[in-house]
Amino acid sequence: MSACADENSAAPRSAPPTVAGTLAPSDPAGRPGLDAAEEVARDIDVPWGLAFLPDGAALVAERDSGRISRVVAGRAPEQVYQLPGVAARGEGGLLGLAVAPDYAESRYVYAYFTAMTDNRIVRFRLDGPPEVLVAGIAKAGNHNGGRIAFGPDGMLYAGTGDAGEAERSRDPADLNGKILRLTPEGRPAPGNPFPGSPVYSLGHRNVQGLAWDRAGRLFAAEFGQNRFDEINLIEPGRDYGWPEVEGAGGADRGFADPLLTWTTAEASPSGIAIAGDTLYVAALRGKRLWTVPLENGRAGAPRAELRDRYGRLRTVEVAPDGALWLTTSNTDGRGDPGSGDDRVLRFPAR
């Protein structure tokens, strides 16, 4: 059987450094400093999705329980929603979260989750039932994708996995192994490369990270199989090669080559975020945070930060005040939980 890049690593992690108990000021124009972490929340059960409300509080999703909590530094997490119908198994469950750009008026929160029969995208208000926007994304014990985010164009993007059936990835009529681009109502977005289809790009194995730079370019993180994990610069209608290609080497056959690759032991990249000209990549099996300089859509040499300090890292996001928020993923069945796991950490910008 082929190995999956998101397998457990036997490498031990060192004891995490002491974290601060108060919220330090953060400069939205600054750069997140990674030398001092603040613990915002602890004892969270497999945190996966994280999205910020307009007031700076975060919504954090727990994969296995379907709970969504409001997290504010200095206060205990407060459960604010229980998503019905979550069927957690393997890597499936309550996955990505996104907050509507017009949340102050619409009050909509979006979620990607695994149900009994499929993966789905829903939206809801915190005081109301969910509305199914997209259904029929095939589910499996792994390769469910799950990251969702609103782009600078106001459209909702979703990364899906191949659900263990690689041939799905290159079929433009299939929702799996794709990046989807949707209107806030869940319909195919205007201008998509395949008319009437939500498919934005194809040939993906398992997309778990989405982020845009200041010029509006979309970057995505993707799990490889046995050899190479990827960061891709996403262009509409492009085929990123899976299952024909893992890593680079497909350009002469019309596939889009990745910007960056790592060995699967170094990465298993999940969430990504961009602050200024730096791409941040949370690594699960690699148990580190990769920082990558960006310039005009090109990537510089990656640097490994926080290696083995906090264990497996799932989600990284930039808060409205410029701070970098990071979730651990040591209680997901593949980690080595320590005291306080799983945790939400904050790194203020200076």
Overall description:
The chain is mainly β. It has one helix and 25 strands. The protein has one helix spanning about 105; strands at about 40, 45-50, 60, 65-70, 80, 95-100, 110-115, 120-125, 130-135, 150, 155-160, 180, 200, 205-210, 220, 230-235, 260-265, 270-275, 280-285, 290-295, 300, 305, 315-320, 325-330, 345. The strands form six sheets. Strands 18, 19, 20, 21 and 22 form a five-stranded antiparallel β-sheet that branches. A four-stranded antiparallel β-sheet has the order 1-25-24-23, with no helix packed on it. Strands 2-3-4-5 form a four-stranded antiparallel β-sheet, with no helix packed on it. A hairpin with a 4-residue loop joins strand 3 (about 60) and strand 4 (about 65-70). It is globular, with a radius of gyration of 18 Å. The N and C termini lie far apart (about 45 Å).
Q: End-to-end span in angstroms?
A: 47 Å
Radius of gyration: 18 Å
Shape estimate: globular
Report strand %.
Answer: 35-45%
Summarize the amount of helix as a percent range: under 10%
Question: Which regions contain 5 or more consecutive residues with pLDDT less than 50?
Answer: 5-15
Helix/sheet category: mainly beta
Topology pattern, helix = H, strand = E = EEEEEEHEEEEEEEEEEEEEEEEEEE
Give the number of helices.
1
| Largest sheet entry | 5 strands, antiparallel
Query: Taking all residues together, what is the mean pLDDT?
Result: 94
What is the number of strand segments? 25
